[in-house]
Amino acid sequence: MLPKDIVVFLEEARPYDRRLAIAADIAACWDACLIAVFVATPLRAMPHAYAVAGPAMRALLEQHRVRVRDAETQVRERFEAMARARGISAEWRLSESEVAEELMLHARYAGLALVPPFESSPEPSMTVRMAEHVIFGSGRPTILIPDEWPAGRIGRRIVVGWNASREATRAVGDALPFLAQAEAVKVVCVCDEPDGELECREDFGADLCRHLARYGVQVTLEQVDGGKVGPVLLEQARAFHADMLVMGAYGHTRLTRLVLGSATRTVLCQASIPVLVSR
């Protein structure tokens, strides 16, 4: 079943035009409602805001309110025009001063989320580590879209990182609408990963290919002996001229810090193509 609602996060502090266009194209293809969440840069992230008080603070608050309103108006007009041009239903949301948990909830009520690339060390102006919170907190499939990735080029040639784990299985199921429409799909299994993130048997890659073929997926299998999973997946995607990489996300929370698996961190931090991940 195709998702019937897609949410795209638009951070004021970074480029979002191409991500928005890609989300609109997917929504039009799937006849889904497109939800845009405009994430305004909070006042606390503005330079020297912490040092202002009294009348100056009130003036700063008003300037901030006007700036956010103007920025929101401009992107909302583009969003609504884009929705009209594609004939899709659309919903606009403004997010101001929402904490990470509140932002994440926007994704929980949608079938798919599109977010900016992963930031291991976000700039102060960025509200949260957007990708991190949505991937690991929403329970929804998430696509990380590079800021400069061209609209109209996604999901035609797909590489699937496969290790028969629960996370990878979830990712394949979530990616099935893309896989079924793709021109070519390559399943990549990497054997003998030293840190134990991936186990390998000769048959499970073939089993997945048979499963996908029943859905009409044009799929091939590549088994790689040895090597680190993350770099291997990125190299396989490059050699395949892929425009999407599908994988399960591995990680756990240690106190207040998210600890990513090595393959997950490598792909999220270094991928130059869209990455669909599920947790």
From TrEMBL:
> What positions does the domain UspA occupy?
156-279
Q: Where along the sequence do coiled-coil regions lie? A: none
Q: Which InterPro entries match?
A: Universal_stress_UspA, UspA
- Name of the protein in its database record: Nucleotide-binding universal stress UspA family protein
Provide the family line: Belongs to the universal stress protein A family.
| Provenance organism | Marinobacter nauticus (Marinobacter hydrocarbonoclasticus)
Source taxon at top rank: Bacteria
